[in-house]
Specification:
With 118 residues, the protein is mainly beta. It contains one helix and seven strands.
């Protein structure tokens, strides 16, 4: 009976540590080529650093984007257009505004996105 109790206690303790864990700060080390102002968009399984600015000499929905892989290599640099065009914009400096990058679209809050301008 003692062996069973010890076994059950060990099983309980090992399972107690297997719950869902949230990784709060999963940002990787910043490569030297990534600007200090760039924001990490991603999780523990990957992501990109982004730097978005709003040029004053462009249309309301046009932004300038620089997107970097965690290695520091550039993924994209150029103009991006906000969709849908009828929108209220978003806070370009708020990390929680961004949801992910798929290679040609940067997904942001409120079902909006920034797409590469070709």
């Amino acid at each position: 009976m003692k062996i069973l109790n010890v076994f059950l206690m060990a099983l309980f303790l090992s399972l107690a540590g297997c719950g869902d864990q949230v990784i709060e700060n999963s940002e990787p080390d910043r490569a030297a080529t990534i600007p200090s102002s760039a924001i990490w968009v991603g999780g523990h399984d990957g992501g990109v650093f982004i730097s978005i600015t709003k040029p004053t000499d462009t249309d309301k929905e046009v932004y300038w984007g620089e997107i970097f892989y965690a290695s520091g290599d550039i993924a994209y640099k150029g103009h991006m257009s906000l969709f849908p065009k009828e929108n209220d914009g978003f806070d370009i400096n708020n990390q929680s505004s961004y949801q992910g990058w798929d290679g040609d679209t940067l997904y942001i809050i409120n079902n909006q996105s920034l797409k590469i301008v070709e």
